[in-house]
Write a structure and sequence with these properties.
This protein has about 325 residues and is α+β, with helices and mostly antiparallel strands. Helix content is about 10%, strand content about 30%. It has 5 helices and 17 strands. Strands 3, 6, 9, 10, 12, 13, 15 and 17 form an 8-stranded antiparallel beta sheet that branches. The protein has a 5-stranded antiparallel beta sheet with strand order 4-14-11-16-5, with helices on one face. Strand 12 and strand 13 form a beta hairpin. It is globular, with a radius of gyration of 18 Å. Bound molecules: calcium ion (CA) (2 copies).
């Protein structure tokens, strides 16, 4: 495999960094071995030669990272298509999200499986953009286990759906006891986001919809919308000495626990920015996904040391029976 070929660039303002052929053939497989602290270990598997490009357009700064320098396949098998974008608002990532959706196929909603084609989506909004409830952290999070064939776990306390602020429970600002959280996150789909509590790790696994988790499954693609990914480089736009360490990662594992692919997620300056990262293989080889959202569990102020990140829409391929 190599980083060339099979790559699809879908930035709103496209920028491709130079391809680094040294990545080709480099494999660092970690069979059945999941690091408990990926923030320290990811540096060993992700190309550190990160080069951000800032594009100024009509006064709006939009920062994107070339995927060839932020993502690399860990498998000797084929390289997936990569879809990613980052920018100040939903418009900046809409094209990449829609292209990812189109690549996976039609939305199968809550239809029971097994189905051969299509995709599933979770927007955490309860089917109503005016719903502002904050759900208490639960672990595992099984709300969509039966209807959409995915479940989520965290090494922390649990996982919650919440608006940035408002509603009876006060949203993220109250959930994490930090009033600043009311202002620094933006939804891609109104009005709620998804987050681990007591951790920055979310682990997804899959099953055939309609089986209540009893038929384990794999998917061919998985993508996540993030909000307020600041690092690298976006933490303090005016700072000369910026932080070059990525805060947010997505790792994809096969059925044997082997790491298939890993990437950091592109950042964008300012508060409430949105990022999208998704990959699609030709076949359903992804058995689980480990998402590191931010470099620390939510709670502290979002600053140069702490990049707090929330998640919005999850989009993934139709779960297929595990072989
Ligand atoms: Ca949402
Ligand atoms: Ca942040």
């Amino acid at each position: 495999m190599g980083c060339s070929g099979g790559f699809q660039s879908l930035f709103p303002l496209t920028h491709m960094n130079r391809h680094n052929n040294k990545q080709a053939g480099k494999t660092k497989q970690k069979p059945n071995h999941r690091k408990k602290e990926p923030m320290q270990t990811k540096q060993s598997v992700i190309n550190l030669n990160i080069r951000a490009t800032v594009i100024a357009a009509f006064g709006v700064l939009l920062m994107v990272l070339g995927v060839s320098e932020t993502a690399q396949a860990q498998s000797s098998q084929s390289t997936p298509l990569v879809f990613q974008a980052a920018g100040p608002d939903a418009t900046a990532i809409q094209g990449a999200v829609d292209a990812f959706r189109a690549a996976l196929g039609d939305n199968n909603l809550n239809n029971p499986g097994p189905l051969q084609k299509g995709r599933r989506e979770i927007n955490w909004d309860g089917g109503n953009p005016n719903l502002m409830d904050t759900t208490p952290p639960v672990n595992p999070f099984l709300v969509f286990l039966n209807t959409r064939g995915s479940q989520y776990k965290t090494p922390g306390l649990g996982l919650s759906q919440a608006p940035p602020a408002g509603g009876l429970q006060g949203g993220l600002a109250v959930l994490f006891g930090n009033p600043n959280y009311a202002k620094i996150f933006r939804t891609f789909s109104r009005s709620r986001l998804f987050t681990p509590v007591g951790s920055n790790i979310t682990e997804a696994s899959f099953s055939i919809p309609g089986t209540n988790g009893n038929a384990p499954a794999t998917v061919r693609g998985f993508g996540v919308v993030f909000t307020d990914v600041d690092q690298p480089d976006g933490a303090v736009p005016s700072a000369v000495a910026s932080n070059h360490k990525p805060s947010t990662f997505v790792e994809y594992f096969g059925k044997n626990g082997r790491l298939l692919f890993s990437s950091s997620v592109a950042a964008s300056p300012g508060d409430g920015n949105l990022s999208f990262f998704g990959i699609k293989f030709d076949d359903a080889r992804i058995a689980s996904v480990r998402i590191t959202s931010g470099n620390v569990a939510p709670g502290p102020n979002d600053d140069r040391q702490h990049d707090i990140v929330m998640m919005d829409d999850f989009i993934y391929g139709e779960p297929q029976i595990l072989h």
